[in-house]
Amino acid sequence: MNYPKLVVLISGNGSNLQAIIDSTHRINPNITIRANVVAVISNRKKAYGLERARKYNIPAIYLPFKSKKMDRIEYDKSLANEISKFKPDLIILAGWMHILSNEFLKIHRRVINLHPALPGEFPGKDAIGMAYQAFKEGKTKRTGAMVHWVIPELDAGEPLETIKIPILNNDSENDLRKRVQYYEKELLLKSINKVLLNNLYP
Ligand code: GRF
Q1: Residue 96's domain spans which residues?
Q2: Which ligand 1 atom lies nearest to the CA of residue 17?
Q3: How far apart (Å, rounded) are the C-alpha atoms in residues 186 and 36?
Q4: Mutation test of ligand 1: which of 92, 97, 98, 114 has the most ligand atoms closer than 8 Å to its C-beta?
Q5: Catalytic: 25?
Q6: Lower CB count within 10 Å: N or C terminus of the chain?
Q7: pLDDT (tens digit, 9 = 90+) per residue, 139-167?
């Protein structure tokens, strides 16, 4: 059976990568993804997600962006070329902390990103912290998460799935972080299936 090939880009812990692996290995009883993770790439050497990949014999590649030695376009092209070797059907950004340029997206356009906020709210780093701050200032009682198609503009492509997540009165920032990180996994898995099963493209 020729399953679709997934390449997952990470920069950190890789708990979302783990959720994808669990679903492709039928370890998650709720959501099965009929696809294979064929490579995991990190721009951070110490990203624990690389370890997670190795445990499943998935090629785990460290590809750093060294801003003093190369420009962004050069990096994005080398990243795109590295990914091309695996002939992916879908590229998933799961905690990937590097903005992909148009140069990259001209080579690979079927790319989705998980972002822990709702469309149009809190783009960029620390979206959960920003939502918590807005809550503390009485400006909101909820945040959310989304999976969207990737465009050069940060956290701004067309959403595939969104979820609203309440912020409770006695929440600490860490409570909120845990809640968002719990719900975002299901959202990511659903989105991957949505793209693959409906053969969606941006
Ligand atoms: C997630 O909260 C994701 O939404 C954000 O970065 C975090 C990555 O977590 N962009 P992990 O590395 O998958 O554990």
Answers
A1: 1-108
A2: 13
A3: 18
A4: 114
A5: no
A6: N
A7: 999 999 999 999 999 999 999 999 999 99
